[in-house]
Amino acid sequence: MMAESVHDVATLQRTLQQTVAGVEDDLAAQGRQTRDLQRDLLRTRMVEFDSIAERLYGVVRQAAKDFGKPARLEIEGGSLEMDRGVLERSVPAFEHILRNAVGHGIEPAAARLAAGKPEEGVITLTVEQQSNDVAVTFADDGAGLDLARIREKALEQGLIEAHQALTEAEVANLVFTAGLSTALELSEMAGRGIGLDVVRAEVNALGGRVDLSTESGQGSRFKLVLPLTTAVNQVVLLRLGEVVMGVPANQVELVRRVPLAMLEAAYASGQFDYNGLGLDFYWAGALLQTSPASIEAHSKTASVAIFRSAGQFVAVHVDEVLGNQEVVVKNLGPQLSRLPGLVGMSALASGAVVLIYNPVALAGAYGEQAQAYIKAQTGRAPATAEAEGATSSPGSVTAASQVPLVLVVDDSITVRRVTQRLLKREGYRVALAADGLQALEQLQLEKPAVVLADIEMPRMDGFDLVRNIRADDKLKDLPVIMITSRIAEKHREYARALGVDHYLGKPYPEDELIALVRAYCDTRLQEK
Question: Staple partner for 410: which of 287, 441, 454, 528, CB 3.0–4.6 Å?
């Protein structure tokens, strides 16, 4: 009889395993079908760059006729495919650059011959794919930008001061200032006083960037870096305090966990060493003007993300990397689309709305303001706060830590964030850990008033965490509240045997949790 029961159980287990395997195979097949359908839909949005070639050739022919200058356009890499929406929105910017190249860049035929150049000027448009971006470069063989005249016009309009020292690159970039024009007289071709600020604004709105270089007598080069597609993108979610921002995955070069000493040195110098390169270094919250410094109780290391866009790098300190998501990027509308560094927005599966940024463009536009913001808000470098946190011994109390600290340990980011908001609303400081090992690292930095821990977590579960706490002479009296979906009596008994002070089942009443935390925190303060 016993043998038959064992046989029945084994058969049931095999059947269950086969059913689960079948469901997993079905889900995997559905996932593949969804991805295939998505790729097919994206392919219908892609068109060759050459689809607008005749329009661009016509712009140069008309400009050459209107200005009386022989000029022609050559397109290289026109067979590359781009998102139809990106291409259509970029065409006005392309036309503006081409008209400027003929009107301001290409010299009259007599001047070109006198300079030893061919009578006909050439504008070369090169299209190249760079990862998930497309680089569209306009290079002419004209006279280059008249930097002296640009500076003169900027002085006339009060854009710069007479005593202000500017490099050639800074003077050249003044052409992107709204209203600045070096045309001797306003005409339709000269732009009626509308400068290249329109081009930069439109490219920024698409989540791209514009680079400019010029050489006297040799010509100018405008490089527009645009997204290959804006329909569906892989986005990396980053947390800085309570703010979550998204960054296109193709711009994330590397995420590195660095020792606090290295982080402090980077804040002190404003530079982060990456393979021998000194990259500009910022706290992400300062770039967004949301916080002057991280307030996270870091363990022995902290997260630094390296971003790359249009061949430029920047290093940014963030509190946490939440992972990758494939999202549909939505347009921001005319009010926000012209903000530098703001790519778009998306709604996550949870319903939360996240803004998507280009950190390289953010640093280029707001880097100096970020440093000024840090200084104005804190009066010191963020490294100072990090250093204090790094050198404080376990259980030490600074003026800021007089407010009770609660350690929340849960592998679910959603649970951590919800619990964090709940506790902060009640006035507590909150430290977060994704599993038992991270929790033990946090406990070495500062002893909290109480620990809230889940049971099922990777690397080290809640039960093992409690065992380690009770085995440590400095932590053995630390109150632990276990919050879990395992509500069977055997789990409660096991938790009590390990020394868990209180056991809550999910979902729990918020009032009950706050009352427990308040009681343990009050007891801790009385002991002090």
Answer: 454
**HEC string for 410-440:** CCCHHHHHHHHHHHHHCCCEEEEECCHHHHH
What span, in angstroms and rounded, lies between the C-alpha atoms of 390 and 436?
Answer: 20
Residue 338 tokens, joined:
């012209």
- Are 481 and 450 a contacting pair, CB within 8 Å? yes
Distance CA 524, CA 407 (A): 14
Provide DSSP, 229-291: -SSEEEEEEEEETTEEEEEEGGGEEEEEEEEHHHHHHHHHHTEEEETTEEEEEEEHHHHTTS-
Which of 496-520 are b and which e, b meaning 16 or more Cβ less than 10 Å from the residue's Cβ? eebbbbbbbeeeeeeeebeebbbeb
Cα–Cα distances in angstroms (integers) from residue 248 to residues 77, 159, 240, in the given order: 25, 34, 17
CA 45 to chain centre: 26
Over its C-alpha atoms, the chain yields an Rg (Å, rounded) of 30
Q: Which helix (H) or strand (E) holds 214?
A: strand 209-215
Question: Residue 428 and residue 276: Cα distance in Å, rounded?
Answer: 42
Number of H helices, E strands in the chain: 16, 22
Q: In the block, which residue shows the tokens 């295939």?
A: 36
Tokens for 403? Answer: 């407010």
Residue 114, helix vs strand vs coil: helix
How far is the C-alpha of 316 from the C-alpha of 391, rounded, in Å?
Answer: 23
Domains and CATH numbers, the chain: 47-227 (3.30.565.10), 232-389 (2.30.30.40), 393-527 (3.40.50.2300)
Determine the Cα–Cα distance for residues 201 and 189; give it in Å rounded to an integer: 20
Number of Cβ within 10 Å of residue 353's Cβ equals: 11
- Of 249, 245, 246, 247, nearest to 234 by C-alpha is 249
The CA-based angle 303-307-308, given to 5 degrees, is 160
DSSP result, 373-391: HHHHHHSS-HHHHHHHHHH
* Contact partners, residue 349, CB within 8 Å, separation at least 6: 325
Instruction: Give the span between the Cα atoms of 152 and 38, in whole angstroms.
Output: 53
For the record, the structure tokens of 370 come out as 């970020």
Overall pTM > 0.70: no
Alpha helix stretches (DSSP H) within 115-258: 147-156, 168-172, 197-205
Mean pLDDT by runs of 10 across the 528 residues of the chain is 55 65 59 57 75 93 92 92 84 90 90 91 91 85 87 82 82 78 47 62 77 89 80 80 86 89 89 89 90 78 86 88 78 65 76 84 84 68 40 35 78 82 80 86 85 86 88 88 81 84 82 85 65
